């Protein structure tokens, strides 16, 4: 696991090579194995491999959607908000599990934030995506995870660039 974390970087540009069905199946299994509070599993996942539909997802907000220009796979992570008051946390866990699994399969990925973002002055990014993908009104979209084969491999962050000052010992005032 630490090797995956050491190597993982957000990938914003992908090759045209599609993600193989076997790898997509593993990604599906991984998100369904994600932990959730009280095992309620309020999340739902929409796997999208239709390039035109992925490009339409790119229009969900004004900034931060560049990875959808070249992604060959996008996963919309949403939840029935009435099922669990910690649906945001549950969907966040599933999103990162998806990203780490993608990394383990030789794929790149990038988290695209949707929750609390605007599509336009009158419509949220969440509303836009729900309308585009026929998601019921009682669901909210947390994120889109773009995925595919990285156009170029980015090195992970060097150990000496980690922010160890963010680690405290026994008290907030005691940095290690």
Strand order of the largest sheet: 1-2-4-3
- N-end to C-end Cα span: 24 Å
| Portion in beta strands | 15-25%
- The rough form would be described as globular
Q: Helicity range of the residues?
A: 25-40%
Count the beta strands.
4
Q: H/E series, N to C?
A: HHEHEHEHE
Low-pLDDT residue spans: none
What is the tally of helical segments?
Answer: 5
How does the major sheet shape up?
4 strands, antiparallel
What is the typical, i.e. mean, pLDDT?
96
Taking all Cα atoms into account, the compactness measure Rg is: 17 Å
Structural class: alpha+beta
Give a topology summary.
Layout: H1 2-7, H2 21-32, E1 43-48, H3 51-57, E2 73-80, H4 87-104, E3 108-113, H5 125-133, E4 139-148
Antiparallel strand pairs: 1-2, 2-4, 3-4
Quickly describe the structure.
With 176 residues, the protein is of the alpha+beta class.
Descriptive notes:
Helix 2 packs antiparallel against helix 4 (87-104). The chain has a four-stranded antiparallel beta sheet, with helices on both faces. The protein contains five helices and four strands. It is an alpha+beta fold. It has helices at residues 2-7, 21-32, 51-57, 87-104, 125-133, and strands spanning 43-48, 73-80, 108-113, 139-148.
Defining traits:
alpha+beta; globular; single chain; four-stranded antiparallel β-sheet; 176 residues
């Amino acid at each position: 696991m630490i090797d995956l974390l050491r190597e993982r970087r957000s990938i914003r540009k992908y090759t045209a090579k599609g993600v193989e069905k076997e790898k997509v199946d593993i990604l599906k299994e991984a998100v369904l194995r994600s932990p959730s509070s009280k095992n309620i599993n309020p999340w739902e996942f929409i796997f999208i491999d239709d390039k035109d539909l992925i490009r339409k997802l790119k229009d969900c907000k004004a900034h931060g959607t560049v990875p959808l220009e070249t992604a060959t796979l996008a996963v919309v992570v949403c939840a029935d908000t009435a099922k669990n008051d910690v649906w945001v946390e549950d969907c966040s866990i599933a999103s990162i599990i998806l990203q780490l699994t993608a990394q383990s399969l030789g794929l790149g990925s990038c988290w695209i934030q949707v929750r609390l973002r605007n599509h336009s002055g009158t419509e949220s990014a969440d509303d836009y995506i729900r309308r585009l993908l026929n998601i019921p009104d009682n669901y909210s979209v947390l994120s889109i995870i773009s995925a595919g084969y990285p156009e170029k491999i980015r090195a992970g962050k060097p150990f000496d660039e980690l922010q160890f000052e963010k680690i405290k010992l026994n008290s907030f005032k005691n940095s290690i």
